[in-house]
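From the shared-data thread, chain only:
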Amino acid sequence: MTDRVVLAYSGGLDTSVAIGWIGAETGAEVVALAVDVGQGGEDLEVIRQRALTCGAVESVVVDAREEFARAFVAPAIRANALYMDRYPLISSLSRPVIVRHLVEAARTFGAGAIAHGCTGKGNDQVRFEVGVMALAPELKVLAPVRDSGMTRDKAIAFADERGLPIDVTARSPYSIDQNLWGRTAECGVLEDPWAQPPEDVFVYTADPTLARDPDEVTIGFVDGLPVSLDGRALPLPELVAELNTRAGAQGVGRIDLIEDRLVGIKSREIYECPAAITLLTAHRDLEDLTLERDLARFKRGVDQRWAELVYDGLWYSPLRAALDAFVDDASVRVSGDVRIRLAGGVAQVVGRRSEASLYDHALATYDAGDQFDQRDARGFIDLWGLPSKVWAAREQRLAR
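Structure, as C-alpha cells:
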C-alpha cells in the first residue's frame, strides 16, 4: 500500500499547497485533517471538500471545540497565561490539541508520517513537531513549505498556476489564524513595525475610539474557572463566544506586539482576543481577593513559566503537567463574581465579591469598627527591620 501522510489542514494557502508538494516529492497519499477549535469563518465542510479538490485522498473534520475549551483554554485561565505579559497564547494553545488528533488520525489511517504547513521562521513548526515527538516518537514529520524553501509569494503563484481554491491573493497577503480564544494576523504591511495596522485587519473587535454606550458584565467563577455571565450559567465555549462578541463590540482585546519568537527573531503580531483579555483580567482580580499573599506571589512566577512552556511548544512536558497540579490546587477557593466595565477598548474591573474573600473590612477600615490594633505595628517593624539594622551598623563600623 502507498505510504500515507496525515496533513494538518487549515484550508489556507500553505496547507493547500502542501498537498500537492507531498504527492510530487514523496509519492505518498495525503489524508487532510481539519480540527475545529472554534475558528469560525468558512464552513468546515467547504474546507473538507477543498482538501479533496487539492488532491487529498481522504479529508476529515474533527469537532474539538469543547475539548479545546475544557482541556486547554480552562487551564490557561487558571494560570493567567500571558506570554510577554500581553499575548494570551491563541495559536499556542490550539496546536497541542491539533497534534493529539493528528496522531490519532495517523494510527487510524495507517500513516507513517505527519505533515504541517509551517514555515521555518515561526513557532508552530516547533509546537507540531515536538508535540508529535512526545506523543508518537515513531512517526516522521514533514514540513513541505519550510523544506521546499517556498516563500509566500511563490506559494501564491503556485496556487494560482494550479487553480487551487484558496482565499489568499497577492492583494490581501495577511496570514490569519483564529480560534475560540482569539485571532492573529501577520504579514503584508504589518511587517513594518512603524505602520499602523489598517482597520481591515480587525474582525473580532470594533474600533475602540468610536463612541458607544459602555457594557457591563458580571462573570461568575468557581475554583478559578468562569461558569456564568450576569447570573446565567454557560458552558465555557458559549461563555467565551458571548464575551468575544460583547467585549469585541467595545474594542477590547486589540494587541499590537513586537514578539520574541522561539526561533530567535522578533516579529510584529496583531492579536484580537476580547474574551481572553476580559476573562484573564477578571480572574487575576479575583485571585487578589481570595489568595493568601505568599501563595499569590509564588503563583505569579508559576503563571509566567507556564505561559513560556506552552508558547515554546512544551505542552506535553512533565514540567507543564507538574505546574498544572500546583495551579489546580491553588485555584481552590478562587470563586466569586467579578464585575467588568467594557468601554473604549478597556476591560476594567469595577467590583468583586466572594464567599472565600480574604478581605476583612473590620481590619481594613479606618473608620469606626476598626479591629486592627495599630500598636502592634511598632514591634512588627522593629523585628522586620532588625536584619537591615544589624547590616547597616556593620557597614558603618567597617567604613571608618
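The radius of gyration is 25 Å.
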